[in-house]
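User: Quick sanity check before I run a bigger batch. Here is a single chain. Can you write out its predicted 3D structure?
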Amino acid sequence: MSPDAVAGADGRRDDLVIALTYYAPYVSGLTNMARDIAEGLADRGRRVTVVTSRYDSSLPREEEINGVRVLRAPVLTRLGRGVVAPEFVRLARATIAKAKVGSLQLPMLEAGAIAAGMRTPIVSTYHCDVTLPSGLVNTVQRLVVDASNRLAMQKSAVVAVTSEDYARHSRMWPAIEPSMVVVPPPCAPPPPGEPTYRETSGLHVGFLGRIVREKGLEYLVRGFRALPDPDARLLIGGDFTHVAGGSVIDQVREAIGDDERIRLLGFVPEERIGDFYASLDVFTLPSVNAFEAFGIVQAVAMLAGVPVVSSDIPGVRQPVAQTGFGTVVGPGDAAAITRALQSLKADPPDRAAGAARAHQAFSVASVLDDYEVLLDKAVHQGRVRG
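Assistant: Done. Predicted structure follows.
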């Protein structure tokens, strides 16, 4: 990639450079949060560049997306959920070195190598602990990633987390605590939609996200199947063909069995997201471990006026705890999911009031205000250290 690409063709200094492994058009809670912050700050006049991997070879090496310059390092191969992209570290360091602030989205294998010796002040956003299946190779991989993230946070002016609840339960808490600032993810309400996914007058339950092990979809399916109503429907939306680390669609299909009330929708395009939420009576996030620290998708459901059933695990339980708009259940407890769905059907909460409380807690404008304060704090601390 040319020096002009790293520095910006016009030679202007970036206000912020965000480095992360996956970026749009890849879809996950982490990438969506990074995208919304990048585009929100760009819309406010900040000059923002994202450095990421070219995880899909059809993507351009450089482009502009909604006012954000995106630079992609080529990928040699994949390793579990991650990618091997040797140029990524060099490109991230070179681009951050010419910026006012660098932002690292953790967990990320390369984080320590990017942050080490960097004079530009760094803001590390720690999303979640890495969780991998048992085994020697995975244990070594987790230890290496943790060590890299720990080094990056030690070199950071600020460590941002989406909730203190999650951070205090993270195995990385000792590295997070000294420089911690809580900034929730910016959550925009979906566009208004029509209930085009609705089939009957029965209870319509929804899930939207990656079809992966940590989402606990088999427990949601079993909990839903215990509902006796033949008119009830479970709508499962999410990509299961292009998922980093592989999907668990076969296990989900096995759990579904012969229940004809359950729909596997696949990827729900952006233009139909409003229709999806408009079709639901209840949204669910049945996560079974602490791989995610917040669950943006449930806050979006609340903003659409849909109550939520989510798992009682650190971070993920926070949107319901903050708004009271739904209920939490024990992770992996199918019977508790059944009871929660029955309770919300029998006594549905005030949807307008729930949406209003969610807007007050998670609106994009308030989060971007907090993030701008955080960036200015990082610049100031960088000057003090300098």
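The CA atoms of residues 221 and 256 lie 6 Å apart.

User: Great, the batch can go ahead then.
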